[in-house]
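Per reviewer request, we include the raw input and output of the structure prediction for the construct analysed in the revised manuscript.
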Amino acid sequence: MGAVDITLPPPELETAPLLTAYVINASVSLPLLPAPRARPWMNATNERFANRCLPLLIANQAGWILVSGHSLRVSWNGRNDIGGVTVEYLKGGPPFPASSHFGYGIVTWNVPYLFRTSPGYNLLVRGPANWPKDGIAPLEGVVETDWSAATFTVNWRLTRANHPVSFEEGEPICMLVPQRRGELEAFRPEVRPLDDDPALAERYHGWSGDRAAFNAALAVPGSEAVKRGWQKHYFQGVSLDGSSAPTTHQTKLALRPFAGAPPVPVPVPAPAPLPAPATRRPLPPADEILRGLVVIEGFLEPAACQALVGLHQRLGTLGPHSDNGYALGRARTEAPAQFEAARSITGRIGTLIEERFGERVACDLALLCALTARGFRHTLHADNARVVCPRHGDDQQRLRAIGCRCTDAEVRPNHTAWRRYSALLYLSGNHRGGDIVFGEGPNAFGGLYRREIRVRPGLLVLSPSSELYFHETTPVTSGTRYSMNSWYTNDPAHTAPEWQ
């Protein structure tokens, strides 16, 4: 078998850079493929929501992969000598490319190709993007493949002793990404205040406010946001005003396969299994759950409560069909003094969470909300999870009303699964109703406990966002009930920059 080369169609691509794989051992099975778009864990997320993240999808495809021609299991006994790693082949015959070569828990694959790139191009040899494996991590290298006549190896380091890790036949073991040498060094990095670019700042604040309002509306049953499910601006390459991206926008990559290589199916392992049914999970006793419910009188002084109510009355909206959420991130430009006050409040709540629960978090979203008399109320829900019954559906109120106790009902992440803690700070007292009731969740969580809290100005109610803290509000029968609602996460990807 000769060189495996890319043959470009003439004439327009004759000058395109080359990536050539010269076969040096045709008997070793490590096929070369363009990296696939799909990832098992992304397909297994609730409603496949991870596939809405275009940056993840593009990164998934940004290179070529080497896939294993064997099924094997590797383990490490914790010693640093070469004998500390064991490689067991479960499927496929010799020659066997993976072995222990360096020690220190490292598994090494001998690559049966000598790679060459066009002049001026390196080859980044890295782990397959967004394809995590428990107990082992890929090691990365950059090789000057435009001149070197030496091969390289692919290496992974086991991170836990006595924890076997399997690689299946067809599973990627590395990703190959050509890079122009010197390009990274050519960049001139700098840090500047956002206000140095007023046009960009205006667009950012518009996006931030729109995103916060959309996230708030997701909690309103039947809202337009719920019907849409997610915002597609970036995916579609458009701005909030509908204008298109000024440069070429990509929603997928189409890398050419290696010309001359035999066809190999793209590996897409089966999705991960769904979580265990809710009723099979051990539930803590009610008193233990209630210890996680933090209720503090006078957390905010009356004048500060009145100022936040006044902010909503000036800049928010008031209608009967939603909780009338005003995203406090907007106050950064619309009411700077009140924004700083709100940031102080979120900081205090973050400190309280660390003290009570031992976890460092940051604010994801903060809203001023207003419930009107005989209008919208928050029905039964948890802030980061939902119960789903294969027969009775996922309407949490209905599951409770019909007394669903199906043993195969499941707890699944909801659309805000990253939230860890929920904080409700009440601001007004000249209303009736609008109290908050915890407990009485659906299915296995129904009847564990019930605690109704009468709301009043300055009262803080803080709880984890999990399914153990299902809650709802009673109807407001007169007046308008104002509150500041905020949520906290330990996921940096969902931390709102305005609250840092």
